[in-house]
Design goal:
The chain is an alpha/beta fold and about 100 residues long. It has helices at about 10-20, 40-45, 55-65, 80-85, 90-95, and strands at about 5, 30, 45-50, 70-75, 95-100.
């Protein structure tokens, strides 16, 4: 079964989405590019994601998705949304669904 990646892992929005999908047994990967407590990174509770201000950000996220068997990404951070929106076709070509969550849940 493929995984779901939820960005901005430290936010309440991320945990709300996680609870909706985890209840159905879907494997969830929580990720964030912001500073995350080391203990959460070491435990694997949260994965460190690339920064959206990188020119290669869409390709870095694509690589993360392919390496971690991710077929759906919930993008919650405005900077991440702005960086990924122009590259949606690239993800489509790899059968990765990008959900741009632009407003509060």
């Amino acid at each position: 079964m493929a995984n779901i990646l939820i960005t901005e892992a430290l936010s309440a929005k991320a945990h709300k989405i996680k609870s909706e999908y985890a209840a159905n047994g879907v494997p969830i990967i929580m990720g964030d590019f912001n500073d995350v407590p080391v203990v959460m990174l070491k435990s694997g509770a949260i994965k460190n994601l690339p920064r959206p201000d990188s020119v290669a950000y869409p390709h870095q996220i694509l690589t993360f998705c392919l390496d971690n068997n991710v077929n759906t990404v919930f993008v919650l951070n405005e900077h991440e949304i702005n960086a990924l929106e122009p590259a949606l076709q690239l993800f489509f070509e790899y059968d990765i669904d990008i959900q741009l969550v632009k407003n509060d849940l």
